[in-house]
Amino acid sequence: MARAGDKNLDMDQIDKSMSFSPAHEVGISCGTVTIDPKRAKLLIVWNNRLQIHQLPKGTRNVEEHWFDAALRETHEETGFRAEAVALKVPTRAQLPKRALPNKGKGYKKPEILEGHVSREFIGTCSYPDPQSKSPSFKTVFFWAATCDSTSTPDKDTQDEGENLVPKWIDVADVEKFLRFEAEISVVKKALSDMKRSGHKVGEE
Q: Where is the Nudix hydrolase domain (predicted)?
């Protein structure tokens, strides 16, 4: 049933613009923008098979929480144990009633929630998966994370067949290394969210 104020919605246009994709044609990948704030370093990987630098990411396991998948994939691909960082990420997710005064009575939900510190994903990259043998449109969800770039990575964490080399670079050099513009945008978004949240990157 349409709500009051929704009478001007063009349902036919909505119907035409809406599409359905079965689960097996939807690729979901999770990764991190892992930063060492003290040293202004960014964790990336060199993909020997594709001959490109990229952000650490990978396919989630069945029923795995997407947030957990991002940290697991980062650890598996790099050996480093990143920790998610809570930021003021503008998001379309909403606060549950239990988190609001008087269980939300008199509270008007904003279209975009801002100023709330959370571990929501910071952005996505989407594209038709060229490596899939069957039709698949992949979306990669990224979370902001931190790690000490001088720490010792765990050994032998990569899956069989993976040939990735972890590398810490200066955040200022991100455009010189990352192959994909969309991933560069994700890194810039993470840095912006960190600054908005009061985190200093490379500043004592």
A: 25-191
